């Protein structure tokens, strides 16, 4: 008994004191796989830790999410100032600046911000900026992010243009996150072909938060979305009817359908029971 107790104490000391176990990084998940997936086996391959992040974190990477329904302009401007210029503003600070330097009465009246309001606030911050109107070919060759207005799903909206790659326009949407449109679709919703650009100070190191990443290129084609998101679901009613018939009680009655070939002749039918809650 003494030997067993001593052995247990030594094992406990070895496991807790002799081994140095590093802290597990935040968000790490450790998993194992059986040696041969065709058979259940106690021999497993031990894998390296995998960093797991919530999907919404990637979806809004580098984006300041709008707090209010009408604040897409201030959120888009904050996203551009922080992600491209290197400011560290929150949406409320940007909204206060837009209200202070913009056309206050018109902002209150229309419950939204304009590109002119943005220019006045950006100028107060000490940056050069400007609104421009151009063709899609100009936007496709643009090598910097810009705020673009779109008319999408029946409402006006501001998003940040990130880049044009392989026939798709990638944007940072303060309401929906990082997404992309086909070139044809974007040209349909691009409102008045206008854009707003901010020039960073010469020599400043830019954060690059709005640069395209590999995860941005994992797109779903519009045709696939249309096929599966708007598909008319059809249930196999014939199979459901057959299953209901199997569970029903059969009885023999006279056919009372005057349009039937078996009118007034005995036929076999299925009597189903239906239940409803009180």
Automatic annotation (TrEMBL):
Domain Peptidase C39: start-end pairs: 66-197
Listed GO CC annotations: membrane
PROSITE patterns linked: PEPTIDASE_C39
MF terms (GO), sorted A to Z = ATP binding; peptidase activity
Pfam families of this UniProt entry?
Answer: Peptidase_C39 (PF03412)
The GO annotation for biological process reads: proteolysis
What's the superkingdom here? Bacteria
The protein in question is named: Peptidase
């Amino acid at each position: 008994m003494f030997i067993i107790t001593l052995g247990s104490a030594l094992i406990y000391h070895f496991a807790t004191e002799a081994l140095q176990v590093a802290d597990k990084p935040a968000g790490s998940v450790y998993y194992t796989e059986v040696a041969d997936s065709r058979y259940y086996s106690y021999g497993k391959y031990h894998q390296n830790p995998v960093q797991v992040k919530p999907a919404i974190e990637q979806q809004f990477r580098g984006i300041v999410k709008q707090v209010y329904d009408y604040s897409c302009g201030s959120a888009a401007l904050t996203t551009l100032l922080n992600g491209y210029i290197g400011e560290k503003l929150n949406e409320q600070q940007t909204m206060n600046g837009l209200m202070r330097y913009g056309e206050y009465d018109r902002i209150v009246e229309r419950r939204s911000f304009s590109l002119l309001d943005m220019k006045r606030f950006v100028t107060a911050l000490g940056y050069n900026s400007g609104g421009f109107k151009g063709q899609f070919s100009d936007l496709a060759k643009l090598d910097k992010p810009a705020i673009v207005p779109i008319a999408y799903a029946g409402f006006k909206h501001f998003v940040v243009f990130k880049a044009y790659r392989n026939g798709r326009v990638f944007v940072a949407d303060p309401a929906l996150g990082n997404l992309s449109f086909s070139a044809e679709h974007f040209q349909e919703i691009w409102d008045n072909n206008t854009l707003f650009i901010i020039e960073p100070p010469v020599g400043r190191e830019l954060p690059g938060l709005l640069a395209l990443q590999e995860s941005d290129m994992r797109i779903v084609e519009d045709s696939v979305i249309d096929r599966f998101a708007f598909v008319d679901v059809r249930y196999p009613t014939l199979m459901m009817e057959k299953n209901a018939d199997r569970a029903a009680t059969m009885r023999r009655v006279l056919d009372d359908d005057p349009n039937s070939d078996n009118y007034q002749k005995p036929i076999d039918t299925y009597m189903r029971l239906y239940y409803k809650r009180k």
